[in-house]
Specification:
This protein is an all-beta fold. It has one helix spanning about 120-125; strands at about 15, 20, 30, 35-45, 45-50, 50-55, 55-65, 70-75, 85-90, 95-105, 130-135, 145, 160, 170, 195-200, 205-210, 225-235, 240-250, 260-270, 275-285, 290-300, 325-330, 340-345, 355-360, 370-380. The strands form 7 sheets. The chain has a 5-stranded antiparallel beta sheet, with no helix packed on it. A hairpin with a 4-residue loop joins strand 19 and strand 20. The longest helix has 7 residues, at about 120-125. The relative contact order is 0.17.
Length: about 375
């Protein structure tokens, strides 16, 4: 695939940002010149649907065969059982129509039971899911999800494969290196690990990415320094094909005195054999206690990066990280609000043949946040 074109001088024009696109449904990747912002839709706070409260939407994907969307909630079965939704979206060059939810599927354990919440896990066992990404299998329409796990209960990150009805098909074995740290020295950080999932354009492999560095790979990003996060390509059996170090940005703004801030990889989307879009999302708490989100999309090229799969630690190692280049900074769109964007997917083609890109935000089931979907046209 050709690399993304450089940010154009027209960056300041409303709605035009450089980018690239892959047609939906695993077609061959192709380059594009720009992204035009088309429109936004929101889902009401805790919208009731089929006995559930809609919210916490942390991942989205488009199924071109069925012309429908799948959207996963990161509810850890606290409100209702771990689940995903199917939906229809009216996508056109003129705008994005309201979200029409069409179904809800509970993700199930091997014995057919729903996944427990933390309280039932403590007494009955099973697996608590903290779902962060969802993808439709381009081969058969089945569903793949990632879960961050929970270090407090010894639950490691997962990549799970389910039928379209939510029943479990299997689970990919992950490299031991990616297990949640038990001692705070080696392993993945709790709640800062497996956020991302994407099929390669040919459908033969998957990419996963950690939100933040492993403990032994160095500290998390700060306002003054970025960090290296591992991105891993797996075949369909879970065999590691390669692993690279991605240079995540520093935190883009300073928090208020005594307040919190964090940043990292929220999602990836493969665009070619060696290229991916990477969604970096930061949350910075101001002096007023309010969190403000900073969201950027980068293109990363992993073709020249060192394979770090065999490196026990990145900190201090001689390596070549993946290359990256800014594609889109949502701050340039002048939207009334940019919330906690976590999901990223290609959408259907427009009537003019152009591809589309859709983002979704996770409102954390908080009345002070919103669930928003943003639509872009990919211009050649």
């Amino acid at each position: 695939m050709k690399s993304l074109s450089m940010l154009a001088a027209a960056l300041g024009l409303a709605g035009l940002l450089c980018g690239c696109a892959t047609p939906a449904g695993g077609e061959s990747a192709h380059a594009a010149g720009a992204l035009r912002f088309i429109g936004e839709q929101r889902i009401a706070f805790k919208l009731p649907f089929e006995g559930t409260s809609v919210g916490g939407l942390s991942g989205i994907d488009y199924d071109p065969v069925r012309d429908q969307w799948v959207i996963v909630s990161d509810d850890r079965s606290n409100l209702q059982a771990a689940r995903f939704y199917t939906a229809r979206l009216a996508v056109s060059k003129a705008g994005l129509g309201p979200v029409q939810l069409t179904g809800m599927q509970v993700l199930r354990q091997a014995d057919g039971s729903p996944h427990p919440d933390v309280g039932h896990f403590a007494t009955d066992g099973g697996t608590v899911l903290d779902l962060e990404s969802i993808r439709v299998d381009p081969r058969d329409g089945s569903i793949w999800t990632t879960s961050e796990g929970d270090g407090r209960f010894g639950l490691d990150p997962l990549v799970r494969h389910a039928r379209a009805d939510g029943s479990l098909l299997g689970e990919l074995p992950l490299p031991p290196l990616l297990r949640i740290s038990r001692d705070g020295k080696i392993g993945a950080r709790n709640n800062l690990n497996l956020e991302s999932l994407s099929f390669a354009p040919d459908g033969n492999s998957l990419w996963i990415a950690l939100e933040a560095p492993l403990h032994q790979d160095g500290p998390v990003p700060t306002v003054s320094a970025g960090a290296l996060c591992r991105m891993t390509q797996l075949d369909r059996s879970g065999r590691v094909l390669r692993q690279v170090a991605y240079p995540a940005d520093p935190i883009p703004a300073a928090p208020g005195p005594g307040k919190a801030a964090e940043t990292g990889i929220a999602e990836v989307l493969a665009t070619g054999a060696d290229t991916l879009l990477v969604l970096e999302r930061a949350a910075v708490q101001g002096a007023d206690g309010v969190y403000r989100n900073h969201v950027r999309i980068y293109e990363t090229d992993v073709s020249g990066a060192t394979d770090v799969a065999a490196l026990p630690a990145l900190q201090g190692a001689a390596l070549r990280p993946a290359r990256k280049r800014l594609v889109l900074d949502l701050a340039t769109l002048a939207l009334p609000r940019v919330d906690n964007i976590e999901g990223l997917t290609w959408g259907p083609r427009l009537a003019n043949g152009h591809a589309t890109l859709v983002l979704v935000s996770d409102d954390n089931f908080s009345a002070t946040q919103v669930t928003q979907l943003l639509l872009f046209e990919v211009l050649p």
